Amino acid sequence: MIKESLLSALALALLAAASSEGADAGFKITSTAFSEGKEIPKRFTCDGENVSPPLAWTGAPAGTKAFALILDDPDAPSGLFTHWIVLNLPASDHSLPEGVKPAANQGTNDFGKPGYGGPCPPRGTHRYFFHLYALKGELSGLKSPNRKQIDAALKGHVIAEARLMGTYQR
What we know:
Layout lengths: L1 H24 L2 E3 L24 E4 L7 E8 L7 E10 L4 E2 L8 E2 L18 E11 L11 H8 L3 E12 L1
Antiparallel strand pairs: 1-2, 2-5, 3-4, 3-7, 4-6, 7-8
């Protein structure tokens, strides 16, 4: 009897996990400037105009009240390097145009400035991940947060994540 209860609880947990994974399956972020896994054009880097690329997303799960966007480079010599933090994008938004300075709150990147700081690897090919988070609600009480602060604020608020990866080398 205990064995059956455990199996039943396990089956319910697996079903719930499968359902939440399915909610993420249709949530996607794309760019007309580059495709998944391809090179980010120079225009969007420190070697070019250093403007943000155009981004668009579809399939946000039901219950999404806001979005947060983080661009980071896990290949930086010092470890994870954050290039852009945007929080509290309205749920009605489905894109950011090229070079945008969103009305939403922007965090402090690892260059020490709020806003976008494009790819700028010291050497070699680096991967750059655009993480778009669908949130249960706006993140309050944050004024130009750094990466540590935004990571803490996201805990318990994320419904789903969409991700786009591009590369760049100098």
